[in-house]
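Handout, section 3.2

Students often ask what a structure token actually looks like in practice. Rather than define it abstractly, here is a full record for NECT4 protein. The first block is the sequence as you would receive it.
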Amino acid sequence: CAMAVPAGCRAGVVEVERSVTAVLGQDVVLPCRYRAQEQEQVVQVTWLKRGPGGRSAEVAVLNRQHGEHVQEPYAGRVLRRAAGALEDGAIVLRN
């Protein structure tokens, strides 16, 4: 995941799992958290899938002002794990 904070403010730390194990046919949580510094606020979280040859394809964008946008073929399969501030940008990938 990638997080965006207002320009000139980024000093916090993005925390992600190096590896997540999933079971075929079951939901999996893909964690991503931004440990913000004082007065910081995450405005957008972007989830990308890295494919063959290092290419990245957008999976989902979580935006504080514009809501969530999920690309096909992930529509209906990607949900935010928790409502509220985007410092917790974890998603649930269903099935």
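Discussion prompt for tutorial groups: The chain has one domain: 13-93. How would you have guessed this from the sequence alone?
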